[in-house]
Amino acid sequence: MKKSFIYLLVAICILPSCDHKPKRLFEHVVVIGIDGLTSDGLQRAETPVMDELIANGAVKYDVRAVLPTSSAANWGAMIHGVGTEASGITSNKWEPDGQWMQPVVKNKYDRFPNIFNIIREQLPDAEQGAIFHWGGIGKLLQKEVVNCYLKGSSAGETTQLSCDYIVSKKPTFLFIHLDHVDGAGHGFGYKSDEYLKVVANADSLVGRIVESIRQAGMENNTLVMVVSDHGGFLKGHGGESTDECNVPIIYHGNGIKKNYTVQQVVYMYDLGANVAFALNLKVPYAWTGRPSLPAYEGYTEPE
User: Fold this and answer.
1) What is the rounded CA–CA span in Å between residue 236 and residue 170?
2) Can you tell me whether residue 34 is helix, strand or coil?
3) How confident is the model over 231-240, as pLDDT tens digits?
4) CA-CA distance, 105 to 285, in Å (whole number)?
5) Using DSSP, how many helices (H) and how many strands (E) does the chain show?
6) What local confidence, expressed as pLDDT, does residue 100 receive?
7) Which residues on neighbouring strands pair with residue 256, listed in sequence order?
8) Which of 62, 87, 135, 175 has the fewest CB within 10 Å, making it most exposed?
9) H-only helix segments in 33-146
10) pLDDT for 110-139, tens place per residue?
11) Helix (H) or strand (E) holding 136
12) Could you tell me which residues are beta bridge partners of residue 35?
């Protein structure tokens, strides 16, 4: 009897700890945000880099934006994992300390919890950054939780800052924002030839970022997501037309299905959940976003 008890104790001691976390799917996640990129523009413009990412990854052409289809509302939805009614980020006029709709829950920064907060809390030593072209992105997060917080004066400078950061720091998470495609939509129209030329330029910038990931030796363990915040109708956006509400997302990396089109519904606020899933992080109960599992190898489309 005593020997059996001793054997039981030994077995318990050598069992893996219940707190042991399984290896995460990816060591790095890089989100490349192209403001105002339409699915029509992605499919019509000369985009060899993104075409290759799609051929060797997964794509969804009709990700549903949140309303209103403005930039702050939708970039905010992506990093906060919820719609505007929960985060309170309802328009480009939103200010973190303004008299706006209050978020449904607040973290220690007195803000709705976003993916940067989650990474800092659960991976305290992780290198993470936000490098953006449009200044409104900076309002959506707290400088205290990122290692790199930079605003570029142009899409090209923003890209170069991002490439330098990737090569030098090999970040666990990097959020990049490029704004010039949306500028072309407003200036020339979202279906114009001029707009398509700027989409092609954005594709070349994506290529530079992807190459920097290779130079950093991160190619085999990085999830790259290319995302858009809204589409456009004529020369504007903010409304409820299909052209404004449906946008593309690309998933690429080892562990992502190849040449696959995701069938399940994907919402704008699912982006943060995908980052958390890739890095094996818990998400707040208040989040409504969920990872796009069918994009990943080993998962099937839900019925």
Assistant:
1) 37
2) strand
3) 999 999 999 9
4) 10
5) 11, 8
6) 79
7) 296
8) 135
9) 39-44, 48-55, 71-80, 84-87, 115-122
10) 999 999 999 999 999 999 999 999 999 999
11) none
12) none
Take residue 248 and report the two structure tokens written for it: 């593309």
Could you count the other beta carbons within 10 Å of the beta carbon of residue 100? Answer: 15
Hunting for tokens 């995908």 — which residue is that? 274
Give the predicted TM-score (pTM) of the model.
0.92
pLDDT in tens, 18-58: 444 568 999 999 999 999 999 999 999 999 999 999 999 99
DSSP class per residue in 190-241:
TTSHHHHHHHHHHHHHHHHHHHHHHHTT-GGGEEEEEE-S---BTTB-SS--
Separation between Cα atoms, residue 178 and residue 227, nearest integer Å: 10
* Helix, strand, coil distribution of the chain in percent, nearest 5: 40, 15, 40
Distance CA 294, CA 155 (A): 32
Q: Please state, in angstroms and as integers, the Cα–Cα distance from residue 145 to each residue in 24, 114, 173, 206, 243, following that order.
A: 21, 10, 12, 26, 35
Token pair listed for 145: 């939780």
Strand duo 148-151 + 128-132: pairing:
parallel
Task: Please state which CATH number belongs to domain 22-82+114-295.
Answer: 3.40.720.10
Coil vs helix vs strand at 150: strand
In the block, tokens 């907060």 appear at 117
Backbone φ, ψ for residue 92 (5° rounding): -70, -15
* Residue 177: φ, ψ to 5°: -130, 125
